[in-house]
Amino acid sequence: MRVSIITVCLNSEKYLSDCIESVRNQSYHDIEYIVIDGGSTDKTLEIINRNLHVISRFKCEPDRGMYDAINKGIRMATGDIIGVLNSDDIFASADSISNIVDCFQLNETDSVYGDLVYVSPENTESITRFWKGKEFRRFRFKFGWMPAHPTFYIRRDLIQEHGLYENHFYTAADYEFMARYLYRHRCSATYLDEIIVKMRCGGLSNGSLKRRLRANRRDYLAMKKNHIPFPFLVSVLKPLSKIHQYKKSHLAKADVAMKEKSLITYVKANSANFTHVESVQ
């Protein structure tokens, strides 16, 4: 099963190397890595050119925003499943993609999503918010719930059937995309109970109250389009439903989970050394 991972970037020199490295370090090897650049003027293109051995397909040209660029990547993709890794994000584990593929195969599902941690921009071990997922239930969309989009992977043939991201929804395009597939078209989804992505704090829709209100308006329009009942009320509930992600108890659980994952990764990476030491004794 081939996995197409799409990263879009624009003047992303600060963190893009970390993003690419986390793809390179994946234990699963049937990955098609697609990078779409919107015409960077900093050192982004230098970083991309240094990593062409990791990048399968690359395009650099002006676009009409992030989701227009993602659509370009989807059109180029040849994988069985497609996901997006933002240019300032990284996978939480070397086994993230392997576990996603296993989840697809074991459950014969249309899509997979998991958990997400928001981290400090300068210290990806410092967790500030934990987006803990839930088992998929379609009715949850009626209360403002949605999967964490950076962890969302879906079959490419479904995208060919139901369409790309709708760029005119701007920052709500990811929500509209998932609502269209999971709620309106009743595609199946499976929750993978593990942290898949570390996302640096920030975001297009959360920079100010004005941006947040504008994002809520777009959420409302996306809900209305996809026939979610009482869209105005649900658009209000949607941001409120995320407040629990900041609870200290949740952050502590996320921290423990990440430390356990780091330990497992370390043991796997050094298993040969441990075996050698044991045989010498």
Summarize the structure in words.
This protein has one domain: Alpha-Beta Complex (Spore Coat Polysaccharide Biosynthesis Protein SpsA, Chain A), CATH 3.90.550. The model is unreliable at about 275-280 (pLDDT under 50). It is built from 10 helices and 9 strands. Strands 1, 2, 3, 4, 5, 6, 7, 8 and 9 form a 9-stranded mixed beta sheet that branches. With about 280 residues, the chain is an alpha/beta fold. About 40% of the residues lie in helices and about 20% in strands. α6 runs parallel beside α7 and α7 crosses α8 (about 230-240). The chain starts with a strand and ends with a helix. It has helices spanning about 15-25, 45-50, 65-75, 95-105, 155-160, 175-185, 210-225, 230-240, 250-270, 270-280; strands spanning about 5-10, 30-35, 55-60, 80-85, 90, 110-120, 125-130, 155, 190-200.
Quick gist of this model?
With 281 residues, the chain is α/β, with parallel strands linked by helices. It contains 10 helices and 9 strands. Strands 1, 2, 3, 4, 5, 6, 7, 8 and 9 form a 9-stranded mixed beta sheet that branches.
Provide key terms for this protein.
281 residues, alpha/beta, 9 strands
Rg is 19 Å
Taken together, the total number of domains comes to 1
Shape category? globular
* Percent of sequence in beta strands: 15-25%
H-E order: EHEHEHEEHEEEHHEHHHH
Write down the CATH topology: Spore Coat Polysaccharide Biosynthesis Protein SpsA, Chain A
Contiguous runs where pLDDT drops below 50 for at least 5 residues = 276-281
